């Protein structure tokens, strides 16, 4: 004897797993990042998805079950992702952006992350007139940029 679970107020059997569409977005306010990849708890942080770029906005589209998920993006130095290539994590990871999909497919939380960048101008005055090249190293404490 076969038993089917029936959906509320319907004569049709309920599907076992209902997947909902989710779009994750990384907005690059600096315009300097390329080859962006997404990772998340939706695949136990083991699978990476290459983002699609449209005017400084990187996106991926996924189909996910109801639940709570964390995610983030990184830049890969390789044209094809290779975990050994010296990736640079861009979104905060303490904590990662998080979102929840409820039983009706409604999404709450952070499915978008915007990297806000401001131009900075440096002026170096060489009173000795002896410098022939200058290097500036920058760092960030909020994980938005790697130490340059």
Walk me through the structure:
By secondary structure, this protein is mainly β. Helix content is 0%, strand content 33%. The protein has no helices and ten strands. Strands 2, 3, 6, 7, 8 and 9 form a six-stranded antiparallel sheet that branches. Strand 8 and strand 9 form a beta hairpin. The radius of gyration is 22 Å and the shape is elongated. The protein starts with 19 loop residues before the first strand and ends in a 33-residue tail after the last strand. The N terminus and C terminus are likely disordered.
What are the SSEs and their pairings?
Blueprint: E1 20-28, E2 36-40, E3 49-50, E4 52-54, E5 57-64, E6 67-75, E7 88-89, E8 98-101, E9 107-109, E10 112-115
Parallel strand pairs: 1-10
Antiparallel strand pairs: 1-5, 2-3, 2-6, 4-5, 6-7, 6-8, 8-9
Short description:
With 148 residues, the protein is mainly beta.
Q: What's the Cα radius of gyration?
A: 22 Å
Give the count of helical stretches. Answer: 0
The residue fraction in helices comes out at under 10%
What low-confidence regions span 5 or more consecutive residues with pLDDT below 50? 1-6, 143-148
Strand content: 25-35%
Whole-number mean pLDDT: 82
Give the number of DSSP strands.
Answer: 10
Tell me the overall shape: elongated
> What would you call the quaternary organization?
single chain
- Cα separation of the termini: 66 Å
The biggest beta sheet is recorded as: 6 strands, antiparallel
Helix-strand topology string: EEEEEEEEEE
Sheet/helix structural class: mainly beta
